[in-house]
Structures are given as structure tokens and as C-alpha cells.
Design brief:
The protein is mainly β. It has two domains: 48 residues, Roll (SH3 type barrels), CATH 2.30.30; 194 residues, Fumarylacetoacetase-like, C-terminal domain (Fumarylacetoacetate hydrolase, domain 2, Alpha-Beta Complex). The chain has four helices and 19 strands. Strands 1, 2, 3, 4, 5, 6, 7, 8, 10, 11, 13 and 16 form a twelve-stranded mixed β-sheet that branches. Strands 15-14-18-19 form a four-stranded antiparallel β-sheet, with no helix packed on it. A three-stranded antiparallel β-sheet has the order 12-9-17. The termini are far apart. It holds the Pfam family FAA_hydrolase. GO terms for molecular function: acetylpyruvate hydrolase activity; isomerase activity; metal ion binding. InterPro entries: Fumarylacetoacetase-like_C, Fumarylacetoacetase_C_sf. This is Fumarylacetoacetase-like C-terminal domain-containing protein. Keywords: Metal-binding.
């Protein structure tokens, strides 16, 4: 059954809720365990601001998971998932600004991605067990200092600046991630477009592979790679990640 989990500030209070037909209901209990639907808090439009949908211990990221993107950046198609990490301090919410670190970089890029939210502790699981480890899915923007990525020869600095991992606006469970439309819009113009059926490594393989490297904890995030069409942003630009069945993640560059 499809469910939508949201963390937000509504009527002056921080709340974790369930969204049904545009109404936010208080989630009573544990999003990762037992919970019930509490009283209505108001409509989604009444939320004063959104919070990151989770507070992960880590964001495990996958590079070059679309063939067209690997070709675009001139790198070989990986034979196994190419992994890197983004720090939890890079995570921000729908509506929060992405801060351009002009003191250290001259090119910052958008990257639209599907994010997987881990629902229970898992280690060394097989692909067939992966679905039981997943709470749901949300939109992600793997913001990247492209010049530093090329300069450093590895990706930690370029991917790790504060605000470089927008997530949201909510988590959607009960959907099939295997063929979702995904796009990035920059100032209203579509600049990336693909479907998750074009993944080199599907979600179940990614969860399994990563869990054999590191233990995944409830609330951890896996971002699954970006399609072709990456490009730079400047201060004042509006970035929107849109994913079928989930919604729109919007952040302004400042």
C-alpha cells in the first residue's frame, strides 16, 4: 500500500506525519517501526517549511549508474556499482537554499537522482531480500562542484559541501522503483530526462552490494545515480527534481 511520510514545521511545531489526500496527519509512533495515524494537522500547503525526510547516519551514493551519463563524462561503463559517500551534514530539505561555495569552486552542477530510504538495519543482504530493507523513496539532488571533482581525482570534496544533498519533499512507500520517469528542471526548463529502467544496476542490486560493504541503518539514504544532461548552476537559479509517483524537490541556489 502506498504511504507518504513527511517531516515538516506546521502551525509552529516540528512534526512527523502521514500525507493522505493532501492532508498531513500526525504520525504517532516510529516511522521505522510501529505507528498509527493521529489527528489531522492541516493541509500540505499549510506546512511552514519542510524538514529533511530523514536524518541519515550516511548517504551512500552511486556514480555512473546510467550508460548515457557515463558516456557523457567520458568514463567506462562500470562492471560493479561505483560507490562514494556524502556526509550527513550535506543533507537539506525541500525549499532550503543550496549555498554556492564560491570560496573554493567555480562550477557547481545539479544532478537529479532517485533516493532510496533504508527502513531497517541490514548487512550482507541478497538482492531478493532488499525490498524488505527499504522504507520508501524520495527525490535527491547530488549537487557537485564539478571542477573539484576533476581536479581531485576522487569525489569527496566535490560532493560534500554543506547543503549539497537536498532530499524530499517526502518519502513514498509502496511504489515500484524499476521504471519511474525522472527529470531535472532549471529555472523551469527541462535539462535532464530519463527513466529508472535505464539504471545499469537496479535498486535491489544496489542495496545488496552496498550492504555487503557497510551496514545500512534505518534512515540511511542511497542515491542511485544521475542521467545525462548535467550542467552548471549560478546564484539565483531554481532547481527542481521531479520523479513520477513521488513529487517535486525544489531548491534555490544562493
Amino acid at each position: 500500500m502506498k504511504r507518504m511520510f513527511v517531516r515538516c514545521v506546521i502551525k509552529g511545531k516540528r512534526e512527523t506525519g502521514l500525507v493522505e489526500n493532501g492532508i498531513i496527519y500526525r504520525l504517532e509512533g516510529d516511522m521505522f517501526g510501529e505507528y498509527t495515524r493521529g489527528p489531522a494537522l492541516g493541509s500540505v500547503d499549510e506546512a511552514e517549511r519542510f524538514l529533511p525526510p530523514v536524518e541519515p547516519s550516511k548517504v551512500a551514493a552511486v556514480g555512473l549508474n546510467y550508460r548515457d551519463h557515463a558516456i557523457e563524462v567520458g568514463l567506462p561503463i562500470p562492471e560493479e556499482p561505483l560507490l562514494f559517500l556524502k556526509p550527513s551534514t550535506s543533507v537539506i530539505a525541500h525549499g532550503d537554499p543550496v549555498v554556492y561555495p564560491a570560496h573554493m569552486t567555480e562550477r557547481v552542477d545539479y544532478e537529479a537522482e532517485l533516493a532510496v530510504i533504508i527502513g531497517r538495519k541490514c548487512s550482507r543482504v541478497e538482492p531478493g531480500e532488499a525490498e524488505d530493507c527499504i522504507l520508501g523513496y524520495t527525490c535527491a539532488n547530488d549537487v557537485t562542484a564539478r571542477d573539484l571533482q576533476s581536479k581531485d581525482g576522487q569525489w569527496t570534496r566535490s560532493k560534500s559541501f554543506d547543503t549539497f544533498c537536498p532530499l524530499g519533499p517526502w518519502i513514498v512507500s509502496g511504489i515500484d522503483p524499476s521504471d519511474l520517469e525522472i527529470g531535472m528542471y532549471l529555472n523551469g526548463k527541462q535539462v535532464q530526462h530519463s527513466r529508472t529502467k535505464n539504471f545499469i544496476f537496479p535498486v535491489d542490486v544496489l542495496v545488496s552490494h552496498i550492504s555487503k560493504v557497510m551496514t545500512l541503518l534505518p534512515g540511511d539514504v542511497i542515491i542511485t545515480g544521475t542521467p545525462s544532461g548535467i550542467g552548471p548552476v549560478k546564484k539565483g537559479d531554481v532547481m527542481q527534481v521531479k520523479i513520477e509517483g513521488i513529487g517535486t524537490l525544489e531548491n534555490v541556489v544562493e
